[in-house]
Design a protein that fits this description.
The complex is a heterodimer. In chain A, the strands form 2 sheets. An 8-stranded mixed beta sheet of chain A has the order 2-1-3-4-8-7-10-9, sandwiched between helices. The longest helix of chain A is centred in the first third of the chain and has 16 residues. By secondary structure, chain A is of the alpha/beta class. Chain A has one domain: Rossmann fold (3-Layer(aba) Sandwich). In chain A, about 50% of the residues are buried. In chain A, strand 7, helix 7 and strand 8 form a beta-alpha-beta unit. Chain B is an alpha+beta fold. Chain B has a single domain, classed as 2-Layer Sandwich (Alpha-Beta Plaits). Chain B is built from 2 helices and 4 strands. Chain B has a two-stranded antiparallel ribbon. In chain B, strands 2-3 form a two-stranded antiparallel ribbon. The radius of gyration of chain B is 12 Å and the shape is globular. The chains are: A alpha/beta, B alpha+beta. Chains A and B meet through helix 1, helix 2 and helix 9 of A and helix 1 and helix 2 of B.
Chain lengths: ~270, ~70
């Protein structure tokens, strides 16, 4: 076992519940390396909702809140407001974050509260058996769309930027060093930060959407489609829709942060 | 010199590390581990160039690329 895993994981909870080849473990691996570099484990609180993705924080030996489906960001907002000095990191999935908890996600981005949301996006509801999620590609067959998904997918990064998030990065599980860098930047950033990580699900999304249960083929799928922002600017619109733009998509310090706004309001009321 | 150590207790045999290794150091073991998985092992450890790609991609953090002193 890796020394970082020895240091930060709860041995009693291991092995992780993830299926063999699941990308969520790779993202957790990169996250723990970022936390180790920053040395913030004692000031860290992790929040998860429901789903495979939300199991990721449970294995970390720190303060963990396992909450209701879709409500991870709502609970994290309360935690951050009560203890503004803590680094609050939310692990959530595509169904949990932009499906069931879509409203909390939009409004946390709008309020620009200093949370770090790590969105593990595998394009499907994996744990419950492979139902269609808001990020499932159009025409993809799943357990609840046997004749093809009639809905176009929703891009969480674009929604976050539109709602006012001040740090948005997108990476895939094929780019662990990119995820590590993004997590470090997101935790250091003052304001709502989204690290959108596309993560392979060989068991559900692999078999039903991408037509392969092999995790290594799914990594190749991500690698073949990933383009940087610089490369993306040169691509025509129709080709870009097939690609995954990776890197830091948006960063700004122009909007006020919620905890600071509330602290300023308290100070002014005290006179 | 680098040495790859795969923890047989936690490896689930997903082969992501094998797909990432360009030096073909890793291979699937013929023996099952305690959980019943055909875990990965460092079949040809001398070929390792220490790129760390296997360690970074491992979803179960079962791989460690260690520095070893070259006695020769």
């Amino acid at each position: 076992m890796h020394p970082i895993a020895e240091k930060y994981l709860r041995k009693s909870a291991l092995p992780m519940i993830f299926c063999p080849g699941c990308g969520h473990g790779t993202v957790l691996n990169a996250f723990l390396r970022a936390v180790d570099d920053l040395g913030i484990i004692d000031d860290l609180s992790l929040v998860g909702g429901i789903g495979c993705s939300s199991w990721a924080p449970v294995f970390v030996n720190t303060d963990v809140l396992h909450t209701l489906h879709g409500r991870a960001i709502a609970v994290a907002t309360g935690l951050k407001l009560a203890q503004p000095r803590r680094h609050v990191v939310v692990f959530t999935g595509d169904g949990d974050c932009i499906g069931i908890g879509g409203n909390h996600f939009m409004h946390a981005a709008r309020r620009n509260i200093d949370l770090t949301v790590i969105l593990l996006d595998n394009n499907i509801y994996g744990m419950t058996g492979g139902q269609v999620s808001p990020s499932t590609p159009m025409q993809a067959t799943t357990q609840t769309s046997p004749h093809g998904n009639p809905d176009p997918p929703m891009d969480a990064s674009t929604v976050a930027i539109a709602c006012g998030a001040t740090y948005v990065a997108r990476w895939t599980s094929a780019h662990p060093l990119g995820i590590k860098k993004a997590v470090k930047q997101a935790i250091a950033h003052k304001g709502f930060s989204l690290v959108h990580t596309l993560s392979q699900c060989p068991t559900q999304a692999g078999r039903y959407i991408h037509g392969t249960p092999r995790a290594d083929d799914l990594l190749e799928y991500y690698k073949a489609r990933a383009v940087t922002r610089k490369q993306a600017r040169k691509l025509p619109e129709d080709e870009l829709s097939e690609r995954i733009v990776i890197g830091t998509l948006h960063q700004s310090d122009q909007r006020p942060e919620l905890c600071e706004s509330i602290a300023a309001m308290h100070t002014s009321l005290k006179g | 010199m680098k040495r790859i150590v795969v923890d047989q207790k936690y490896c689930k045999g997903c082969c992501l590390c094998i797909s990432q290794c360009e030096s073909e150091v890793l291979a699937t073991s013929k023996n099952r581990n305690a959980k019943g998985y055909l875990a990965t092992e460092a079949a040809d450890p001398d070929k390792c160039i220490g790129c760390m790609r296997c360690e970074l991609i491992c979803p179960d953090m079962a791989i460690t690329v260690e520095d070893v002193d070259d006695e020769n």
